[in-house]
Specification:
Length: about 80
């Protein structure tokens, strides 16, 4: 097995991870907006909103890490 054979599926995996994080980011963002619009007075749901905000922040950071790794893998495949 050579470098290209290893890096090619690794790149596809990183691309899928970036996409999965984006789905989560979109879902958390929309859920927070829904809560802010329709559940602002519900204390129990506000706790859920806080958890979603934490998950959103975490997903954004994790996606940035995946983007870095995806990009360095792509550079290796170019070279």
């Amino acid at each position: 097995m050579n470098k290209i054979e290893i890096l090619t599926p690794a790149l596809a995996h990183r691309e899928a991870e970036v996409f999965q994080h984006q789905i989560n980011i979109d879902n958390y963002t929309l859920a927070i907006a829904e809560i802010d619009t329709n559940y602002a007075d519900d204390a129990a749901i506000q706790e859920f909103r806080a958890r979603l905000a934490d998950l959103l922040a975490s997903s954004i950071i994790e996606q940035r890490k995946e983007i870095i790794m995806r990009d360095v893998i792509a550079k290796q495949l170019e070279g």
